Amino acid sequence: MSALVSRSSAFSSKLEVLADLEETVRQFMAKHEEKRDNWYPSEFLPANPDDLNDSVITELRDRARGLPDSARVAFTINILTEEGLPHFHRLIAESLGSQTFWSLWNRLWTAEEDRHGNILRDYARDSRLLNFSALEEMQFKYIRNGFYPDWAGDPYKLFIYTTCQERATQISHLNTGKLAEGQEPLLVAVTQKIAQDESRHYAFYMNVFREILARDPNQALEAASSIMPAIDMPGISISNFNDYADVIRRAGIYGPRDYKFIIENLIHNWNIDVMTYLNEIGRKAQDKIMSIPSRLDKLSQYIETRSKAKSFTFEVIYGRILEMA
């Protein structure tokens, strides 16, 4: 019998696996904090009386005025996603416990993520990039509506979702910043800084799930096969979310091909394609996961061949009409 199988049989529940992981994760957290750049939003935009300079804000607004509307739409979803932090603090606590060792990570992660919404909100206000009152209303409704995915409460599914979502968010921030290159260097710097955080969070969640796979491969693969085919992005409950997502895809910021890239990398990084000594549940889950890239490729081709020129309008970008091929 494989050592992998005999070891996984020693765990009677997912919570026991998490308990066994505590010392490993403690080491992950220490390495994470060693590499972390502990930055604050006030480093990017004037916040203290001595920093206030009308010319800084005037120049910022002049630069922001030239940003394309597609970047404004992506920025809107990015900021709302980041401002949805209360949803995810709750979901992590529900899945991992609010009084357990894992709450140490939840608090650290929340403190680091909190900066993202803060700097994006400050930028939106100071730059006048968006209709701020419309943005505030969207944020209020999004927080009030809640986010209740069907994986809530399952720690394995939580780690799979957060791994995928952190990488997707990183891609979205980076590509939004690229639309500002040559026009607005501050927005480029802000999106890059956030993307760096997301990259480190992605690495943490990915490494944790790798350890789970080593301890409980069959249940871990079964959980992965239910999450990886498609993830609901955090902002899915936002009004007209599908139109926002369509603009973001058409602008080349994030779409099914990006998600395919994420899945292919996770299959490789988690060695899912070469895992052996699985039971029937594990083998079926493995086959299902291995079929995802091909399905996403077909989905991308279908969307791209059927896509026609379309106009969009969003109150948050001052009701302007956005024409996209």
Show the helix and strand layout.
Blueprint: H1 3-8, H2 14-20, H3 22-35, H4 54-65, H5 69-83, H6 85-96, H7 102-127, H8 132-145, H9 155-178, H10 185-215, H11 217-227, H12 241-250, H13 256-269, H14 280-290, H15 292-306, E1 310-313, E2 321-324
Antiparallel strand pairs: 1-2
Keywords:
325 residues, 2% strand, globular, two-stranded antiparallel sheet, disordered N terminus, single chain, Ribonucleotide Reductase, subunit A, mainly alpha
Please give the share of residues in helix: 55-70%
H/E element sequence: HHHHHHHHHHHHHHHEE
Compute the number of structural domains. 1
Spans of 5+ residues with little confidence (pLDDT < 50)? 1-11
CATH architecture classification name: Orthogonal Bundle
CATH class: Mainly Alpha
Shape, principal axes of CA atoms: globular
Percent range for β-strand residues: under 5%
Secondary structure: number of strands: 2
Structural class: mainly alpha
Description:
- The structure is a single chain.
- The radius of gyration is 21 Å and the shape is globular.
- The protein has helices spanning 3-8, 14-20, 22-35, 54-65, 69-83, 85-96, 102-127, 132-145, 155-178, 185-215, 217-227, 241-250, 256-269, 280-290, 292-306; strands at residues 310-313, 321-324.
- The protein has one domain (13-324): Orthogonal Bundle (Ribonucleotide Reductase, subunit A).
- β1 (310-313) and β2 (321-324) form a beta hairpin.
- The protein contains 15 helices and two strands.
- It is mainly alpha-helical.
- Residues 1-11 have low confidence and may be disordered.
